[in-house]
């Protein structure tokens, strides 16, 4: 017996989503509920997979199953596909198991041709309706299936409307529409070189193939990557009996939601058009009426719709998005699905469903997409202003939110403009640590290069600042202070521009923004989430302000405090540079002594902001050359300021140059070469902890993290320096305090020898940015240049720097967890790479037994919700 690929609507149900897709499963479910659903069948997702396995061909056995299902439907409805007596017409729609905008559009009225259109006119006694349906079918089929651009048809249609002085399409007569049909067919033959397909079965099979092809179109690939949808899922195809909303003023079509998708208010929300078919409602040619207005024009149909909407929401226990058609006064349901909604509406609906007894708190927490919370935590563009704006470029959506400001091309200029009261966008080819003050002063950041874990992206997320990175569609010239778009238009310093960090879009104009607003529902959902999760959520923060923001969002500690960011401040960098150019240990210690009080005060501020919560402080990580200028004019200026010769400083800069600095003299290697750096930082950490204890009675237990360890002896050496210095400070201060020393697992060798590393380390924190970089051998700043090719060629489905590669990097993490626990059963385990705020990565961290995740302050609520969902999924 051959495998079953095609299912009639009465053969499925809502639980068959993986096989029938979301739309097909819901059509089957509605059929089972006895609702007025036009009958039909679904070609399964397995048929889609088979189509690709067979090299883009529909197998004969699948074709035969489609024909068999069609015959059963024909018998049920009493019509015949292709008949010139009583023709059967269908709609063809795509339907993946997850709703995917960008998949194939619907084709209506399939089965019409030059002969069946005449039969349809005779049967309905409505020639105008028949030819209106035929012209729609030719346009849809040509556009969606045969890839003839819609604009070609719009030009013909608008020309004929103008010729007969018609404003609306409903004013065209049957004769006018026959003229449209003939013009469409002529144009189709000109574009394709053959006549418009007349054989209904050939039309149907071509439409099915087009749905399968659309699963792999560029829009669908991008959407899958953004939403963690595997390519292996495939899409189903739904073939459904046509019902007609364009048969006259007693017919119509519409879309409605059981609750308001923008606010979550419990009230029917939607619109419809009489004498119309599906796409008319959204095309904007005529203004639709609100769903409430239907009560006035046809109360019986309105009441029936309200009844069905209530049945569907109670059945699915969620807000429904429904498509319907009215044919000659009879209501038909074409689709229902859980409705897309804004983040604010998602929270409102979840809270309301619990209050109504329709959902448990656990179910309410599980039904909210964690990433949508971003929209609540950052400014957004005002909807009307955004609709009127036009993007001219798209880059990577590196840090969410909306930003509008005047563009500046250096950190100093951005800072100065901000201090003068301007709203600023910082545009750079790529940012570096020395840009931190300009980045802090900016509303948004745009870079031409760099990926999702580039410096700009990481820092922007930590600051909660909108960022579009790696925008290859613009040329940023920092010298001439211009941004050039692909159409040749140019923005100059001081010009207004806007960035959408949630979509990656760049607008060469000012767009009004609206501030973020958090409702009481947010606190309710977060409280429920916290009661379910077992994974702790910390934050990556380098200043008291960032720490306070994170605590406000529910952070339970700091998982990563990057000390190097503290050294780029104007008042501090001279001492740092003095340390770098020092010729011996004594000179270095003298320079470090100037940094000590500053570093100690930073730590005191962070300890106080965290109010006794754990704080993990990472010792100096970047290579020293990042603190020095590279251009000769800047080197000369700095040399003059430092009282040394240009040649002397230039020699230092050249000596620090490395071919591959990310794998060079950085991390623990700096403290091995210059132990006085670790001594100063340890002194600052311990002195700050003791002073805060004395001033506040807070119990501070510092966690000192040594970066870039690849060999247990490296950690043993630096740990000895830390322990000796800590002991000395405690003796001087007359107070003994507990502290911990651990390491970042970011080099594959550290993961593979984690049992040895754990002999020294009291905690591991996975630095997955570098671990990913070193495992793949990709530069995270340059990978964006070729990753798109990997997505297109299906080598990768997602960005490994945005979502943990569970197969490779994840295996190293699991090895490190197992080996670390073997040596030290109570070892504390966390993650502090950017993956700590990605929901699928948070779920993975829960699964392998980490104690906490750490992410940028504005991603803390996302991680809290994702951690709760992971616990609900795996702790059953």
Major β-sheet annotation: 8 strands, mixed
By secondary-structure content and strand pairing, the structural class works out as: alpha/beta
Major sheet: arrangement of strands: 14-24-23-16-17-18-19-15
User: Quick one: overall form?
Assistant: elongated
How large is the radius of gyration? Answer: 32 Å
Helix content: 40-55%
Mean pLDDT: 92
Calculate the terminal CA-CA distance, rounded to whole Å: 39 Å
Question: Mind explaining what this structure looks like?
Answer:
The mean pLDDT is 92. 46% of the residues lie in helices and 17% in strands. The chain is an alpha/beta fold. The strands form 7 sheets. The chain has an 8-stranded mixed β-sheet. An 8-stranded parallel barrel has the order 26-27-28-29-30-31-32-33, surrounded by 6 helices.
Offer a quick outline of the entry.
With 876 residues, this protein is α/β, with parallel strands linked by helices. α5 packs parallel to α7 (174-192), α13 (343-355) packs across α20 and α24 (632-642) packs across α25. The chain is elongated.
